[in-house]
Known about the structure:
Layout: H1 4-18, H2 21-35, H3 41-67, E1 70-71, E2 90-92, E3 104-117, E4 127-128, E5 141-149, E6 160-167, H4 173-178, E7 180-185, E8 196-198, H5 200-206, E9 213-215, E10 221-223, H6 228-240, E11 250-252, H7 258-273, H8 307-311, E12 315-325, E13 329-331, E14 334-343, E15 352-359, H9 362-365, E16 373-378, E17 385-387, H10 389-396, E18 402-404, E19 410-411, H11 417-429, E20 438-440, H12 450-459
Helix pairs in contact: 1-3, 2-3, 6-7, 10-11, 11-12
Amino acid sequence: MRSRAGVFIGNLLFAALCCCTGPFFLAIGCSAWDEDPGWGWPAAVAAAGAAMTLTIPVSAIISTRREFPGITRRDRLKGGGFPYRDDTFVLLAPRSQQGSAQARLMRADVLEAALVRYNPDGESTFTTHVGNYTPDEFTPLIGLRLRVHDTEDTDGTGDFEVAGEWRAPSVCLSAITAGRLVVLVEPAAPGARRAVTPDWPRSALLAGTRTSRLIDLEGRSAELTRSSDRQFQQMRISREVGGVVMTGDTIDLRQLDPYTAARYAALADRYRACPEEQAPLSEPGEEARRLADQLPGEKGEFGWVGRRWSRRGGVLVRARFLEMRGRATFQDHGPVLDTVLRIRPADGTPPFDAARRLTVPMNYLTVLHRTKEVVLAVSPNGRSYVVDWARTNLLAGVTAARVIAPDGRELPVAGRPELIWALMNLLASQGLSVTTPVLDLRKRRLSRVADMVTRAVRDHADPRTCA
């Protein structure tokens, strides 16, 4: 993990190289001023040189602020706005093609997925496409095999399979991993191939990436996240009436027109009489849809530990994304998003929300239906928080964690985030860096924590074996 000072020095050197003529003009202007005082050309040259010289530190500071994913006191969210619950996640994704008026909204299972092409320019700098939230250069082309379900044909005879290539906005990639999409199907003549277009924002909602709840006409609240059948019926109503706006993650029937509210209320009564089971986090066969290994982003690791940071009391904390909002700025390894995080300080003080513009790795976005958690490294004075994407991706399961015991046995840690979190904190407290996803206790420098690690693995119950 890079330090803020290292990033700033690098940006300062780069800015100095780009603006190297500034100090040169400043020196020439000042020298000429001594020989010919006045407001002639020496003053103009000196002023231009001073402006260019001043640009060097200012540019370095601005670039560091953009590149370095740090959160400080000034990023804290002020009062007002949407009241986020702890389990809220609001995802504002780019709009998809709406299709013709005759197109029908259908559900689709993702059977297979693979990256076809993602080839940006290869630079790490920020690129902005004004007004375009899904430029082809930064929108991966994904090959999909889908099974489309016609919900009006209860016997399943209307289902069909289709394969093709579609560009998927990076903030909606988790819908593919989860295996549930919403698609628009155009009518076609008998025997002809039907045109299918994924509706990515609705897919992210159906997949459970974006949370959802509904407040009925009596003010009662119902949690709808991953209630896929009911959500899909609500989507059909919304499309028929020209769209229904969600406030945060909530639809309030009291704010809708009477006709639309009545249709939603009738649907709610039907599902209240026959409750729907919540859909799984991911449909069976996720390995055939896994895109995390094919897309850019930091590889997961147990993390680098600065000795000075560790000795002076630096700690790790976890935060949770509450909101992500798409922008028209991108880096090669991920989009730049306006985010809101809820941070829980290590000292037990109340959690606080922070708004920060971050570049979110694409491989992390593929598992957003499973987790919205992120790992932060806290400065020793507790005033700044740094997003550690390498640790985050290991905790999120983007990269599988492994622990090798001193006797060569592999200890079971994959898929156990609480155990992985405990091991990260143990290594950080001991000042030990492990910049790979493999914690090999046979290494000499790790021998002093071998007993503590094996004890932690033994003491943390595996949730997959618990009733």
